[in-house]
Amino acid sequence: MIDPLSVSAVAGVLGAVGSAMAGEAGKWAWESIGNLAQRVTGRQLALPDGPEEREELARLLVEGAHRDPAQARALAAWLNGLAEGEAKAPDEAPRLLPASTRYFTDRKGPLAALDKEAGRKADGRPRQVLLHGPDGIGTSAVAIHWGGREAHRFPDGQLYADLRAAGPQGAADPATVLRRFLQKLGVPADRMPATVEDRAERYAQLLAGRRLLVVLDHAHSAAQVRPLLTAAPGVVTVVTARRPLAGLDALNVPVGPLADKDARRLLTDLAGKHAVGAAKAALPGVLERCAGSPFALRAAAPVLGDSAPRAVAGPFPADPVQAANADRYARLAVNAALVYRSCALRRWPAIGSAAAAAASGLTEAEAVEALAELADAGLLETALDGRHRYRPAVRRHAEALAVQEDGLAACAAAVRRTVEHYLRLAVGADHAALPQRWHLGPLYAEIGPDRYPGEAEALAVLGAELPNLVEAVAAAEEFAAPELVCQLVEALWAVQLKAGRHDELLPALRAGARAAADARTAARMHVQLALALTELQEYAAAEQQLELAADAERTVGHLRGQATAVETLGLLRLRQWRYTEALACFEQAAGLLDGIGADGVGQADLPRARALLDRHRGRALRGAGRFEEARAAIERAVAYFRGTGEAYNTARALTDLAQTLVDQGHGPQALPLLDEAGVLLERGGAVFHLMPIAVLRSLCVNEDE
Fold it and tell me: Are 165 and 229 contained in the same domain?
């Protein structure tokens, strides 16, 4: 239980809530703290910036609790309700480490170095090892094999991340990796810290005192790895990379080629004694060609009986990994070779059959067969969800072949077809996940919301494909297709609104703001970027984007768009606890809507736009302590959204109405509203917003008792 009379305890909750504003639920929690601060202190307070200002706010709250026992009870109820959503140890320790290879050969030196580092006496130095060696040499195999063999050392689990995933230059963003690790360590999605710094701090806190292995595979740079490191004495972090990483303070362990005897043993394990014996004459040449690379040896094993290696295709004849790729490629059927080349032209994080068909021009059935052949040949890796991806060295080989064999024009066409595939997928899913919203872009009229059984299923597809969609935006921008960039960004709105993940979306949203040519599209892109910047607590940058949006709409006289920009500025002011200014923004937006004539652009959307403004007005009025006016405004919004059957906004308005009732001391009246809102949110897949309902329900129960 949080002691409402302890400044340090209250400041601790404020710090946790203040860092966890990565989405609507976190925003609600922080906005609620602002409402609470006004009620307890009797005046509006500025949004605290940093730990010193949070501690001062905590002191003011505690002073108010000392003065009034009723305020102390209210403060305790709110703080305990907000703290209940903090990280809880998972029911089972995370076990993310992949399975080790069946045929693991030699590597006594690196394994001994890992044993020594893990077993040394704790002396204040973090236990960190960097395994480095050229592509295909087996650094990942060493880390994974050792982690599996030594699982008994790590009763609190194993975390694993492949850092070559989507991101700049094929490098995973540390913020995305930290999000996944924190979720596995028990941090709810609605309490996820917004910034990489806050996530790294939370990660370090959760690892303190645990005995756990962290494997960071295929690291790109020391900067990428640094936020994922910890000084916790019970944690061993193993990093793999193609080279030593300057600036990484870790035990450097090189992993080199297999000696001839170990290479022969691996070939024998893979191909069998009979095949190795039959190829005795050719064996020295095979070993020389493979140069001790486990990747190349695995490629050679299935065709060991060939009388001679096939001609090397591509520009990498001296590299054993690329020679192995060339040998495998030379044996592919025509369709598989085409898919191999056409899907390698971008760093797609996950390749499915529909995307492969779009890239290659094949049917989806043909693409399924081609992908299976590529996976069987070891040219693609297969994820648990059945989709595929390239190793970086394999993708480089395939991309070079595409340019060489197909030409630049065909390569550009393949990329555009793939981008257009992802655009159609995103538009269909976005339309189904949020069917009532105001849409831009021609495809929304063509692609209806009926491709999915419900909003939750559509939202799940957007979430699963998000890394590919962000890469599609980057591809469209690079290939000078600004209309595709903006249409893709528009189609990311439902996943941005309902699932957060603003840090992952940010590169795409910035591209949209750069790409927009006409004023209306530019305004929409600036607003969408501003909302993400607000969630990431970059308030000054968000305000600048909203000013650009309003200016763009003003130049073309688009009142509906101007109203949206001003309304969004009001939402930013709510986040900053500037309730009077927020209310003024909402009133200004309402006035702009009133100026739209019977034939004006956006006229058909006016009832819904006004209902949204009523909901936001209510939030601002509640923050200003004008509860009866707040209640009336939110009740109008509830009535409208119930009447249209728009589940998501009905649930959000019901939650706001319930909070207003709780703030007025009418908790029992709020309970049925919260129950209704919870059902609607779960049905629509917007579980990101369930935390406010849980907190408010606990407050109702406490009040009733």
Answer: yes
Q: Is the domain of 43 the same as that of 169?
A: no
Which amino acid is it at 679?
V
> Distance between CA atoms of 103 and 595, rounded to whole angstroms?
73
Contacts (Cβ under 8 Å, ≥6 apart) of 277:
none
Q: Which residues contact 268 (CB under 8 A, 6 or more apart)?
A: 276
Residue 449: per-residue pLDDT: 76
- Dig out the tokens for 28 from the structure: 């609600």
> Which one, of 48, 6, 42, 44, lies nearest residue 30 by Cα?
48
Stretch among 66-70, 420-424, 476-480 having the lowest mean pLDDT: 66-70
Residues 14 and 56 in one domain: yes
* Residue 278 structure tokens: 């039959």
* 254 DSSP β-pair partners: 132
114: in domain: yes
Given 304, 330, 356, which residue is the final one in a domain? 330
Residues 342 and 374 in one domain: yes
- Residue 124: which CATH number? 3.40.50.300
Query: At 537, is the secondary structure helix, strand, or coil?
Result: coil
Q: Are residues 350 and 223 in the same domain?
A: no
What tokens were used for 455? 């909003």
Among 18-22, 650-654, 680-684, the minimum mean pLDDT is found in: 18-22
Better pLDDT: 593 or 33 = 593
Mapped onto helix, strand or coil, the DSSP state of residue 305 is coil
The parent domain of residue 128 ranges over: 108-254
350: CATH: 1.10.10.10
pLDDT digits (tens, 9 = 90+) for 256-314: 999 999 999 999 999 899 888 888 888 888 888 899 999 999 888 887 766 444 544 44
Phi/psi of residue 672, nearest 5 degrees: -65, -30
Query: For residues 447 and 581, which has the higher predicted lDDT (pLDDT)?
Result: 581
Has residue 244 been placed in a domain? Answer: yes
Beta bridge partners of 253: 131
DSSP state at residue 123: -
For 27-32, the CB contacts below 8 A with 24+ separation are 27/535, 27/575, 28/655, 28/689, 28/691, 28/692, 29/82, 29/691, 29/692, 29/695, 30/575, 31/574, 31/575, 31/577, 31/619, 31/623, 32/78, 32/82, 32/659, 32/692, 32/695
Residues near 290 by beta carbon (within 8 Å), at least 6 away in sequence: 263, 296, 297, 300, 320, 324
Total domain count, the chain: 4
Contacts of 12 (CB under 8 A, 6+ apart): none
CA distance 379 to 90: 36
Percentage of the chain lying above the pLDDT 70 cut: 92
> Do 172 and 248 fall into the same domain?
yes
Shared domain for 30 and 164, answered yes or no, is no
Would you say the pTM of this structure is higher than 0.90? no
Among residues 330, 361, 382, which one ends one of the domains? 330
The burial of 83, by beta-carbon neighbours within 10 Å (0-12 exposed, 13-18 middle, 19 or more buried), is given as: middle
Tell whether 289 and 241 lie within a shared domain: no
CA–CA dist 586, 570 (Å, integer): 6
DSSP H helix total and E strand total for the chain: 33, 7
List of residues 6+ apart from 180 with CB closer than 8 A: 161
Summarised one tens digit per residue, pLDDT across range 633-642 is 999 999 999 9
